[in-house]
Amino acid sequence: xxxxxxxxxxxxxRIANAAxxxxxxxxxxxxxxxxxxxxxxxxxxAIGAGATILGENYIQETRDKIKEIxxxxxxxxxxxxxxxxxxxxxxxxxxxHSVDRLSLAQEINRVAEKKGKKVRILVQVNISGEETKSGxxxxxxxxxxGEIASMSNxxxxxxxxxxxxxxxxxxxxxYFTALRELRYTLLQESIGGVNxxxxxxxxxxxxxxxxxxxxxxxxxxxxxxxERPPK
Length: 231
Hints:
Blueprint lengths: L2 H19 L8 E5 L5 H9 L4 E4 L2 H11 L4 E4 L8 H7 L2 E5 L2 H14 L3 E6 L16 H8 L5 E7 L12 H15 L6 E7 L6 H6 L4 E4 L1 H4 L6
């Protein structure tokens, strides 16, 4: 068994343990294997070991990988998306986790309508307020969601966030809690065409805490594929 297969098995066990601790069903939590900058051979090892969803940040890199790997797994876009790249993202990805502004949602919807597709998306929320992070201000999420709800070629399925990095994952808990509570508030408004079933939050260093706080998608790269080479 490869190191990647071993790592994946360990992560799956940790997900199951975190779910059990929180009284949740492991089946309700999806593992996104973050494969950005990872070479094709190692991605194939991960797929062979059971990875079913891959998370990517870069359009051209993903296009090249799909040419070699194909659709043996689902590809999700988890990075910052420029509006002028939306036309490519609609073709390549099953879900876009990082919609954070009206102009981007409009462009994805326009391209999807032209192609006769319905694109699954999440709204990225900048819970921490860090200037270095993408995402919409939490106070503006309701307005954005209301606009998206009227776009017939988008399926809004939840929220995504990235907390600040902490050595102690417990320090990230309040950010995960805040996203869960934001979703609860939005659900009380029963916005038509919006289900918000997904919470994409938690990475290699803090995913267990994220699961305890309600994550339905965890995005894990380093703990599966190892440290990425410096840029």
